[in-house]
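INFO  loader      accepted 1 record
INFO  loader      residues=277
INFO  predictor   begin
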Amino acid sequence: MHTVSDAPHMPRSRRVRKPSARGASVALGIVGILVFLILWQSASIFGWVNSKYLPTATDVLTMLGVQLGEGRFWVAVGETLRAWSIGLAISLVAGTVLGLVIGSSRFLRRATHSTIEFLRPIPSVGLIPLAVILFGIKLEGVLLLVVYACFWIILIQVLYGVADVDKVAEDTAKSLGLGTFARVRHLVWPTLLPYLVTGFRLAATVALVLAITAELVIGAPGLGSEVANARSSNAITKMYALVLASGVIGVLVNLGARAIERRLLFWHASVLREVSA
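INFO  predictor   done
INFO  writer      dumping tokens
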């Protein structure tokens, strides 16, 4: 199921963050992880949860280290990242182009509004039977789910961005004789970019979730299918290790998307406030 916040990119509060504050934030994050691991370890050791269903944190981390040394694990990671990147790229291009076309025309906005609002809430996982019928366990079946989920995220953000273009500036550009391409480049694009980058950041995480989910359910090659295989063979510790690896990849994807956001929007007020916050 895909979810998306329709809210555009919003700036954060303006506060100057000192180096000591950043260090404290990192330290608190590390403490939080340690507390979680301690609780996890205690739950298994003291029998709060049956260790048959929840191995100790040390066992899972040890198994994760073993997996990192196996070629099969990295092949699965590569398959998942391939589906993630291709699906995200298709969604980004299609959502941006169609968003610009639809958003630039009042007629198209009105004509497509009801269709978009009808199709957008449909859960991507609801398309799993269709994906299996059309493509079986191939990559295309995973891409169908990823693209469907992420396309709407990008499209909605682009539509919001185009709608946010200053009307006075737009009328001025037309009166000065600027062509369509020049208006898009100098007027629409700077306004649209923060919305588009926000959509990309949201879609990047959703794409990874959908890729792993599709592999888990459909059986397409990747981390999801490895988790399913571990579960079916009763290799519970390995299953948890693979789930943990998926979470780490998700964190890295989110950090990478935020880094791209700061890089592209270094001039935008929201990023300037975030850096100084």
